[in-house]
Each structure stands twice: as structure tokens, then as C-alpha cells.
Structure prediction request, 494 residues.
Amino acid sequence: MIVLCTLNARYIHSSLGLRYLYANMEELQDQTEIMEFMINQRPIDIAENILNKNPSIVGMGIYIWNIQQSTEVISILKALKPDIKIILGGPEISYETEESPAYPYADFILRGQADLDLKLLCQDIINNKPILNKIIDSTPFHPKDIKLPYIFYTDEDIRQRVLYVEASRGCPFKCEFCLSALDKTSQAFDIDEFLHEMDELYLRGARHFKFVDRTFNLNIKTSQKILNFFLQKPLHDLFLHFELIPDRLPEELKDLIQKFPAGALQFEIGIQTFNPEIQQIISRKQDHQKTIENLEYLFTQTEVHLHTDLIAGLPGEDIQSFAKGFDLLVSLKAQEIQMGILKRLRGTPIIRHSKDYGMIFNPTPPYTVLSTAHMDSKTLFRINRFARYWDMIANSGRFSNTLPEILSDNSFNNFMALSDWLFETTGQTHKLALPRLFKLIYQHYDSSESITKHLEIDFNKTGIKSLFSSVIGETQLNTKTGQVASSRQQRHLN
Prediction:
């Protein structure tokens, strides 16, 4: 028995990687089973579930979010069943392999894309063939050479989980903070075969498709085929997520994008920084003017939901530069701005700047930068809290009327003032219930008639029963009961 398993961050996530491995096990498929767990499960319980299958081989996907729990799981497996063969793969074990805490418990490490090589390794283990090396580098292949995995999404997956799909693999760009910088190029799957698989998923009831292609709009003809495919379907319940290159949006794509209704398309657009000097340091190429023009077009001329990304703590960037980029992104009306702290992902070239730019990284996952020569730890801690509160207040869509009043004409500084006050008052950046968040914002701005007026409008849309009349006093925030909370994207449309 062969068990292929991983620990996902949440139940709603599904592992595309495991399904690729399973799809390409060929004659070993009948004795192979996929098992998915969550990182909040107890490692001892996960180990018990795996051992109940009585496997002789366990293959586990190791990622930045599950390395600690996975290490504990395999240590338990080895303690209870020493003869079990543990095969590890995934980005968190493929680089700086021998330094990984999971390394001592593994029998074999398959580095790189193991879609084809896992089956070969399992065959050798089963046939008792001598295997000379513990660390095995996977043989390169073209995506067209492997079997697609989409038939192995279950009906439960389709009903309850995010379906990850990809029309291409790899990335031609060399941004030094990203694992894709190690790719040689982007390679496409056979587009007709891929779209046939998408049609099969659609016929089974799938309506939400999250494309994990790093550069969806790199090959415009392929992008057109994919968009045209979905435009032939009823669009009222369709949701498509794509990651786009920000400065590449030709007219052919614009015409197709305009045909999608509100709520159907979400574009994740990695800006990371608007500072050209910082871009040069991290080997990132991006035409700022085209990026700005494309974002303006998408917001004003289409119904696309824009999820944009900025990174704090990049080498050479100070808080003034970061704030300037944030203010520009706010002015471009992106519905979501996701702010992340720079991570030193294993294998990425970003570490070469550590000495020159005074970069100190957390030695434990997710390896976030703690301090740089241009942003001290206090500043990065503040930005991290800022990002958490921004997600609750701005990205959530719950405060769409109030937010412009808070930001006014100085977005970063005004929201930072609110962020600092929220943390000083609550000491929390997590588990702030929505009614309490409304109370806190009202408390902070109770002297601003304009803000409290718009806060009332936002509160009325939530459908929450009023829980804080004692805080508000004479200015009651009325409620409308019986409303069903809409999705984050839908709230931005209201």
C-alpha cells in the first residue's frame, strides 16, 4: 500500500500536486491512496490515520506552511513502524535539503517536479532494487508528457473545496524573492486536452476554478482560448481566478475581459513594489506606466475584482517608499491590497542581499524578514499589524463606505494611525469579531460625523443585530436582520 499525503492549511484547499502524482502512478495506482489532512489536526492523529492503511510507502508533500507538523508526523511514523519507507517532496524540502528538520526521518527525497519519477522510485522500492542515493533530483519533463489529474477531484471536492488548475507551469521571470525565479521558462500543457478536462469538471458541477499559472497572460493566444471557453458557459455562477503579469494587457484580452459580468473574474496582480530602484535590486522587470494604465482600465472599464500584492521589507526599500507605493495602489481603486512581509523561501536568490542590506530573517517558517537596514523590526511589526487590520477592514469589503472617509487624502498614514490605535487598545490582530470591530472604529472616530454616518451605512448592510448601543449612545447604528452575508467579492460590488 502506498499513501500519498500532505497537510493543507485549510479544509477548503485541495492538493493539486498529490493528484498529479496519483494520476501518473500508472500500474501502481490501484495500490495507491491520497490522504489529505489539515495543519490544525494533531500529528499523532494524522499518523494514526496513515498507519491504519498499513502502508509500506508514504509520500508526503512538504511546504512552508506544514513543515513543522509534517516533521512531527513522519517522526511518529518512523517510531511506530521503522520499516516504512518515507518519501518526501515539495518546495520546502527540495532546497537546502539536508538542513531541513524533516531530513533525518526521510528514506528518500525527490527534489523538483516528481510527477513521473515517484512511480519509478516506488517500483524500485517494491522490487527491492538497490537505490544508491537518498536525495534524488527529478528528471525534467515537458508538461505535455504527463497525465492530467482533474478526474481525481471527487464530487465532494467539487462541492466544497477550491479546485486548482493550471494551463502552464513555470515562469520566465527572475524575481529573486520567488521560487519561480529558479524556473528556466514557462511551459504550456496541451490546451485542447486541458480545456476538455475543464469541460468535464464543469459538467460535474464545478463553477469555481483557481488557475495557479504564474503568468496567465504570458501567451495571449492561450489566454484567449481559455477565456473564450468559459464565455461559452452560463456566467451567472462562474468564478475564475487568474494571476496576471501587470504590464501586459493587449487589446485582444481587454475585449474578452469586458464580456464577463461582475463576480465572475478575479485577477491577482503582483505589484510587490512601485520603486524602480528596488525592482532592479531584486531582478524584477515591470513597466510602471503600463501597469498603472492597465489597473486603471480594469477598474473603470471592466467588472474584474482586483487582488493586488505588495511586499514590505524588500532590500533597499524604506517605509516612505512602501507608503508611496501603497498610496498609489489605493488611488488605482484595487478592491484588495494584500501586504506581505518578505520571506526568505528556501532556494531563492534573495538571501544574497542579506549582508549589503542588513537583512535578518526569522530562522523558522515562514522565514519572514525581521529587520533590514532600511526598515527596523519595530517598523516591520507595525506594517504586519497594518496588513492584518487592512484585511479585516478594507479587503473584507465590510467597510466600503467608511474606508474612503478614513483614508481621506493620506491613505497610508491615516490607516497606520488607526492600526496603531487598534493594537494599543486591543492588543490583538486576530479574532476581532465584526461587531467589536465596528464598535472600535466608532469609538476611535466618534467625533467625526462623516465617518460615523458612513459607518452606520456599512453596519446596516451586515445584518448583524445591534450589540453596541451602549457604546454609541444617541447615535444608534440600526440593523436589518435576516440578510445573508455575501462573499468578499460580492461585498465589494455593493
